[in-house]
Amino acid sequence: MSITGRATAVAHPNIALAKYWGKRRFGHNLPAVPSLSVTLAGLSTLTTVEFDDTLTADELHLGGRPAAPGPLARVTGLLDRVRAATGRREHARVVSHNDFPTAAGLASSASAFAALAFAASAATGLSTAPDAVSDLARRTSVSAARSAYGGFVALRAGEPADEVLPATPIAPEDHWPLRVIIAVTAEGPKDVGSSEGMKHTVDTSPYFPAWVDDAPALYARIHAAVLARDIAALGAAAEASALRMHASAIAADPGLLYWTGPTVAVLTEVRRLRARGTPAFFTIDAGPHVKVFTLPEAEAEVTATLLQIPGVLRTISAKPGGGARLDGG
């Protein structure tokens, strides 16, 4: 073994309050709509990148096992960009581990590619400034652009002239002590990945153009609510963003239904909680799990309620966290 560059980075997933779903058709992996997220402490991806001039191909190990060809190809795509920018030719060994379910609708690709972009950049001497890491990660996974930063983060929709498009932080992690409680309703990866599901929605859903037209107004409402720390306003707009995103996917041909029975049961219970005066609101990514955001004083009540719902296997509690960084940094 002849290691020519090595670094380990950690990054956290983010939960989109204003949803991203769908890419522009003019390339460069650009989002079709603006999005706004909060990066989550309490869940993390740890990734080590070793460039080794004895390797004949890139290697990827996820959770202690060799990765399938699909994930490896995406990792190689990012590493190829790093090699092109640095003039290096060595292949790399990538070892990555999530401490939360992978490929299950919990934004594991966001933290994974943010950590990979940071570690690969550090290992080769590229800039590890957040905007550079964000843009590099975005070229493989749009949502990963937001996990380069901590706190509350925005990413505008792509425009035809864009080649460089990093996310933008709008408020630090201590801006607002939201609590995000994830109701885990299934174990294992989802049947249709987000990238595949988005492309299918763009290509076949008659509701997708309406989603693209409508999303900017919801984004503006969510942006204002976050800055004002107005949970009622945030909750109303974030729930609308999630439901309209899923409506566009459900209307695809054939329709994409990421929800399960327990998913719907959680949505119903969150509305019951709110009717009783508890500040609880939901959002759902492309998967069966529900993320319920609330305030610290209601965290225990919301958690206890979710755990009583049949089909909720467990909950994960999180709060706003920091951006991608070197391990131990």
UniProtKB/TrEMBL annotation:
GO CC annotation, single: cytosol
Entry keywords, A to Z: ATP-binding, Lipid biosynthesis, Lipid metabolism, Lyase, Nucleotide-binding
Domain Diphosphomevalonate decarboxylase-like N-terminal: 11-160
GO BP annotations, alphabetical order: isopentenyl diphosphate biosynthetic process, mevalonate pathway
ATP-binding found in the keyword field: yes
An example molecular function term from Gene Ontology annotations: ATP binding
InterPro entries named in the record: GHMP_kinase_C_sf, Mev_decarb, Mev_diP_decarb, MVD-like_N, Mvd1_C, Ribosomal_Su5_D2-typ_SF, Ribsml_uS5_D2-typ_fold_subgr
Domain of life: Bacteria
Domain Mvd1 C-terminal: 180-308
Enzyme class: lyase
EC numbers on record: 4.1.1.33
Cross-referenced Pfam families: MDD_C, MVD-like_N
Family: Belongs to the diphosphomevalonate decarboxylase family.
Name of the protein this chain belongs to: diphosphomevalonate decarboxylase
